[in-house]
Amino acid sequence: MSEENKKLDMQDLENIAGGNDGAFGPTDTIHNLASYDEHVVAHLPAGSCLVMKTTHGPNGNVMPGHVFYNGDRIWVHNRYWEGRCFLAYDKGEFGYVDAQYVQ
Fold this sequence. Notes:
The protein has 1 helix and 6 strands, in the order H-E-E-E-E-E-E. It is mainly beta.
């Protein structure tokens, strides 16, 4: 073998194939957990809770098992939100929460 030939590493193979399709981590920065920070849920009216939804806004479906109360910790994306909702991560799933209740 000549010196001109080199072994391809995983990054080279990924580039040649057109992307990793999630095989080596998230395919975008929105779902990369390194872009998330832990925050605290606060200012909820008495007797209410913050729920995670499938989409932002009032028409999103509530995601069962993703309920937060005042004082609970929640992971939200540092730089990504839609409307008045943060993109959040909980128990292996991504969804949207009302930003006014996240500090």
